[in-house]
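Running this now, will post back.
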Amino acid sequence: FNKIMKTTYNKQQKFWTGKFGKDYNSRNSLERLVKNNLGLFSKIFNNKLPPKDCLEFGANIGANLVALKNLFPNINTHGVEINNLAFKELTKILGKKNSYNQSIESFDKTRKYDLVFTKGVLIHINPNNLEKIYSKMFKLSKKYILIVEYFNPKPVSIDYRGHKDKLFKRDFAGEIMKKYKSLKLLDYGFCYHGDLSFPQDDVTWFLL
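Update: finished.
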């Protein structure tokens, strides 16, 4: 008989699989997010060879992947999402074949993608697990790694909607480039929440 394996989550993973993750989904409009992301990705990939396929860690309801699909109609999109409700919405966009309902840490596919990226996800990862995720991003990418996160020169933990140790700022891109010397910084930029056309949540992006 096959044994049923019970998934064990750390504090951050439990946080996003539970009520807070559900509330996060309800706060975000797919239409609004896609519009703003179109502006972001247009800037990031301006005058660069577009990716043929991509994998997003922490895809949520798929707003980033929809924007990329609108920008590059031929791109083959894949997403990993831990929250069950968000995953159901994600499968409506990607289909079940390209959607993975699991934590980033447990994702074990070996296929390589032109683009592997996170957007507002590494900031919520247990810092002890970052090295493992950096390794996955590097191994799974055959062309680009994109990191869109809050930036701080040194690691800091800040309160997140009344919760402690659920949001961490640091130099994610600098850390992964230090770990893998073959990575090159192609471009970077900042997106302001007050942008009149395509506002973002004061994130800094790095295309490697």
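The first helix runs from residue 11 to 17. More later if anyone needs it.
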